[in-house]
Amino acid sequence: MERRFEVRKDELVKDSLIAGPVFEGVLQRLTSFTAPFMELMPRGEQRSHLRTYMEGLISDLERKNIEAIAYRNDQDRMNLQRFIGWGAWEHAPLMAELARQVGERLGEDDGVIVIDPSGFKKAGKDSVGVKRQWLGRFGKIDNGQVGVYMGYASRTEHALVDTRLFLPEEWARDRKRREKCKVPRAIRFRTRHELAIEMLSEKSRLLPHRWIAGDDEMGRSSAFRRALRDRIERYLLNVPSNTNIRDLEAAPPPYGGQGPRPKRGFERVDKWVAALPEDAWKRVDVRDGEKGPLVIEIVKRRVVARTEGGRKAETEEVLVVTRSLDEQGHAKHDYSLSNATFATPLAEFARVEKARHRIEDCIERAKGEAGMAHYEVRNWPGWHHHQVLSLMAVWFLTLEKLRGKKLDSGADRFPGTNGSCVAVA
Question: Is 364 exposed, middle or buried (0-12, 13-18, 19+ CB in 10 A)?
Answer without folding.
Answer: middle
